[in-house]
Specification:
Elements: H1 2-15, H2 19-26, H3 41-51, H4 55-58, H5 69-80, H6 82-92, H7 96-115
Length: 116
């Protein structure tokens, strides 16, 4: 369980909150997390949901943000392909109307490719 506690502490630090604040936010008794008390599956699920991470990540058995295989595969594909990564990185800072325009262009190319 110590790896789980260390991961929870790291997530608290990233979020800028104390372990005590997390316990209060989730309605856990004081120091229950830091002492490793009552770390039931339902409590760990609450912690994982609070931080938006997978239960597997929280317990040291898997990926941080991906709750299902399909999402993990898509993320890995983007990570492995420099051009896709560039598109993804560019889209993060784009305005919604720019994304809509780029989407329309890409769908047009896709339709054209299917018709050729």
């Amino acid at each position: 369980m110590s790896k789980t506690i260390e991961t929870i502490k790291e997530l608290c630090k990233e979020k800028g909150i104390s372990l005590h604040r997390l316990e209060m936010d989730l309605g856990f008794s004081n120091a229950s997390l830091s002492r490793g008390r009552d770390l039931t599956e339902s409590r760990l699920i609450k912690v994982a949901e609070y931080f938006g991470v997978s239960l597997d990540y929280l317990t040291g058995r898997g990926s941080r943000f991906f709750a299902n295989k399909e999402t993990a595969q898509i993320a890995q594909t983007i990570f492995d392909d420099a051009e896709l990564r560039l598109l993804f990185d560019t889209a993060k800072d784009a305005r919604p109307e720019d994304i809509a325009m780029a989407r329309a262009v890409l769908l047009g190319y896709k339709r054209k490719a299917h018709n050729d």
